[in-house]
Structures are given as structure tokens and as C-alpha cells.
Design goal:
Elements lengths: L2 H11 L2 H6 E5 L7 E2 L10 E5 L1 H4 L4 H17 L7 H19 L2 H23 L1 H16 L5 H18 L7 H14 L8 H4 L3
Parallel strand pairs: 1-3
Antiparallel strand pairs: 2-3
Helix pairs in contact: 4-7, 4-8, 5-6, 7-8, 7-9, 8-9
Amino acid sequence: MNLDSELYRLIDLMPASGRMYCKIINRPEQPIVISAELPLPWQQNRPIAINFDLWKQLTQPQRDLLLLRTVSWLLSIQWFKVDLYQGLIAAGLAGTLIELIQADAAGIVVSSGLTLVAAAQIWRKSHNTQNQLAADEKAVQVAQRRGYTESDAAHHLLEAIEAVARIENRPTLDFTDLIRCQNLRSIAGTSAIEVPDGVRQQG
């Protein structure tokens, strides 16, 4: 696999919003196939780190769906979408700034604590089961605009999850990955069992 041609192919595969915000980085030292960190509010770029030595062990359809899934997850994170936690972060940051100006130590502690608690909630929400399933489903939708059928896209992503675990020498899938796999089997039509709403909404 030629690294440059694969990079260009992956960039072309991404939706326009992905090309705008997501940046693919070659990271041969990382022990996992692909990784992306929760972007901080002030970060415009959302890096996706790939170990291309491990990446090439996947089939092209598996690579396609794995990238689309990572991009979908990154694009789903909206720090400044107005809801309770984003509002608390804004209030906390504003309060911290005011208290710093006024040099009020107790106020600084309270405002900073509010900001940290709200940010932790956003981090947890971005990693919960519902968000993980939504990222998979969005990747399957985008893949359909790239020539895949819904069932094929779900099947390739399912295979990619299992293949990545083998490549990374993980003996078992974690709970969230098992739920993701079951959801993808349901989308692919190989299982009639859908993920219950109660499980889907677990944190």
C-alpha cells in the first residue's frame, strides 16, 4: 500500500465537512490502528491518527468504513451547541474570568469547578453507547453515498471492529463494541435482534 495514494484516497472518501475539519496523521508508533481524541473547544482541526503499518492489514472496505466512522464521531461533537452542559461551560468560563479580574479566590474555585464538571459531562456524553451507535449509523449512511449498500457497509464496519481487535491483540471486545456489533448485524440484516432503547441510552 502506497502511503501517499492511500492518504489522498481517504481524504477524497471523507464528506466535505470531514475534509474541512479532520486531519489524518501518520503515527507509526501508536499501538492501535486508528485513534481520535475528543477535540477541545478551541481546536479547529480534529486529528485522526493512523498507524499505517497496522492499517494495511485491513481490507479496503474495512478501512473505508473505519475512517468514515471515526470522522462521523468527531463531527458529532459540538461544544458550542446550546444545551445545559454547554451553557454551564460558558457560564463557568465567564464566571472564572470575572473572578480572576476581581481576584476572588473562592469565586475562581467555584467557577472553575463548574466548568470542569460540565466539560466532563460533555466528554462522557460523547463516549456513551448512544453516541457510539449514532457514529456507526452515520458512517453507514455516508458509505451509501460512496457506492456501498446499507447492508454491505454495516457488514464491513462490523468486520473492521473485529479485525482491529485481532490486530491490536485484544482478547475480547468491550461491552460497547459488542453492542455496536449487534446493532450492525441488525442493520446488515444478519440478525433480527435490535439493540433495545434501554441499552442504547446507557452512559
